[in-house]
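User: Here's a chain of 293 residues. Predict its fold as tokens.
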Amino acid sequence: MLTYNSKEWFKPLIYFHKGDTFRKLWLMLVLVAIYTVIVAYVETHFLQISENEHVKNIPIMHSLLGFAISMLLVFRTNTAYDRWWEGRKLWGSLVNASRNLAVKLDAILPMEDKANRNYFSSLIALYPRELQQHLQQEKTRLELDDKPHPEIPGFDRSRHVPSQIISHIQRRVKSLLTVGTISKEELYILNTDLTAFLDICGGCERIKNTPIPYSYSSFIKKFIFIYVLTLPLGFVFSLGYIAVPVVVFIFYVLASLEVIAEEIEEPFGIDTNDLPMARLTETIGKNVHDILH
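Assistant: Prediction complete.
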């Protein structure tokens, strides 16, 4: 995730970072500019239909459609950001659950019981690493698809790894109860935190494998494409070749909003604006080690 100073104005105007939408859209911007130049040239030198009364209604149509597309993009961006923010809250809860479990184990386990302390410390720190890997696998994204995907390479773990880690912790806690190291009341307290681990995993999986409905996303892209293709037909009559930068800028704004929404709606990837899961994992590991050692 890119860290920045939100109070700066000048630097964002001249700096194009790796995830900037301009880098992703520059080829399409060039194509839109060429298309607008062609339309302007044909109108100026051949058709010359700017005096037609019916042509003057085209800008009115664009105004009405512009309002509709702006409402769609606002909803699209808000929905994508809600998914990103929910993912961040889930990983924040994972940090808290890891610390809570480590603190309670530190209070319950004797200081001289290094074996159990090291065991719990390593498994609690292992969980976020495996959860990150689990969420970044293509298999996880497609697990709700109606078609099997045996062609996905690199997926050799047939079982749910985060659940296995919690199962190992649960079995070790149960064994400590059997030998009398912990009481039933302490077991109940620990189970509350262990349940939170899998609840967080389930919440992340819900975001990962339930994308924005395809028909909705597809419709927005088609709407933007058709809207931009018709813009030169209305602008060149009154602006001439000045319509070229105007149309390119409008397309850049609309397409950038869609690109940003696409990037943040799945927050568990490796893009610039995705969640800093690696740093959160390091934080959890360091905190748990400091508590239990």
